[in-house]
């Protein structure tokens, strides 16, 4: 698949001297959902803002749809929709007028049917004549999404879309995002919720302290990281594993008092039943057992810590 966004050697140093992005190289594939995961202050909003041409890079190049986002700003920006992290809330305009106006700003001809379609998709149609400032927070966020979609962008950025959002909006948003992707759009979302990345993304990029720490297909990441452990506290400590157990991913721990079995939590076949049967046959008794999972949360924390 070809890249729709190409970022090379991107650096951002704010006027304060703060280095917010360091040598970022990143390719976003056309038609994918890419989740940019990172703790607060990692540089997610800065990265998105530079791609959208809102923040000037200090070095490096970015192209969107082949257009340089600095020197060909208009052409690049026309194919981008941005739902910013902060929602602006002070408009006296109605929902429908705001979305239609936003479309016009991008030089697109009026298209009431299209505006109606996105308002309906976002459950905003009933509120189309309401003034934005009178809407609830969740409704305002829906308007921000409608505005971002108003000019039919090929690329949609969602900056922390579900931070503080209710369950309904979250569900609608994911449905909409999937629908957009089916129509060929590329979606980049930032989040510090791991579950969100897990649920939605095709690929995940982890950013920490302005640096991209990892970029990987979600499935591969989950496979790698979705390991579980079963720990058996043995009645009688073992000095070594009997040969009959060679076929299992086992390790002795705590001076032979514990047997640790690692298995893939993603797989249908964990092998635990066979293991317990073998242990029974070998006369290896255990007094207790426990399982633990390296959660994505943990993995993420480790990644971020290792990259310090
Ligand atoms: N205009 C600015 N001037 C100076 N520092 C900034 C500015 N905007 C953001 N920063 C700093 O850059 C870092 C990254 O911020 P941001 O991109 O908003 O992170 P994230 O979106 O991942 O939470 C933070 O430490 C933030 O304080
Ligand atoms: Mg942010």
General description of the model:
This protein folds into two domains: about 5-225, P-loop containing nucleotide triphosphate hydrolases (Rossmann fold, 3-Layer(aba) Sandwich), CATH 3.40.50; about 225-295, Alpha-Beta Plaits. The protein is built from ten helices and 14 strands. The chain has helices at about 45-50, 75-80, 95-105, 110-120, 135-150, 165-180, 195-200, 220-225, 270-280, 295-305, and strands at about 5-15, 20-30, 35, 60-65, 65-70, 80-85, 155-160, 185-190, 205-210, 210-215, 225-235, 250-255, 260-265, 285-295. A hairpin with a 5-residue loop joins β1 (about 5-15) and β2 (about 20-30). α3 runs parallel beside α5 (about 135-150). The protein is elongated and about 80 Å long. Magnesium ion binds near residues 44, 45, 85, 159 and 160.
Count of separate structural domains? 2
Unreliable parts? none
Provide a count of the helices: 10
Strands of the largest sheet, in order across it? Answer: 6-7-8-3-9-10
Helix content: 25-40%
The pLDDT mean sits at 89
Total strands: 14
